[in-house]
Amino acid sequence: MLRITDVHAGYGATPILFGVSLEVRPGEAVALLGKNGMGKTTLMKTAIGFLKPWRGTIEFEGRDLTRLAPHDIARLGVGPYKILFSIVSFVGLWLIGWGFAEYRAAGFVNIWMPPPWTRHITLLLVWPAIICVVAAYIPGDIKRVLKHPMLVGVKLWALAHLIANGDLGSIILFGSVLAWAVYDRITLKRRSDAGAPPIPSGGRRNDFFAVAVGTLVYFALGFWFHPWVIGVPVFRAGF
Fold this sequence. Notes:
The chain has 7 helices and 4 strands. The protein is an alpha+beta fold. The protein folds into 2 domains: 2-68, P-loop containing nucleotide triphosphate hydrolases (Rossmann fold); 108-230, no CATH class.
């Protein structure tokens, strides 16, 4: 349970919060509403430790967080969250793979027949797509320019597979992934909060590693994962 009691806080000598109290019990979903400048963001910054309160207390599950640093607060809940998120993600990916395998065993439902040359476009697009995904974890100039290289990579990957696959199952699968990535990017542009602190860029040195690692992953997926796990050869017989 989160309990905020009589919190006063502000920036410099300017007070923003005046005795704010808030309680969130387990299982509750609480919304914080108010006009611009009313202190919503200030309260969130205070609750997670980015802004120290002048007065009052902040408790989470009985533990006093009032003077803790943000990274200490994060450790209280980030571990279980990451474990649960990883499990749910793995189950989701497994279900996608299992469902598509069942669909393929039942027979493809062709909507249109892509020309054979489209597979070459797919091969060309997937390469930079994987590099973009890797660049999200090795921040350099690629990440600085693209801002969200993970989403760029996902969109390229999905678009590439839509170009070379004309059956109904593939259109639904890759089309939904593309739609999600586009929607996610739009919502990021419209965020009103500052978001996470900027990640330091490693410059061109990190870009070199991102390209090298991305290229290795690209060939590993093409020569091993795709033919053996997906069951569709890439570099020899095409998609």
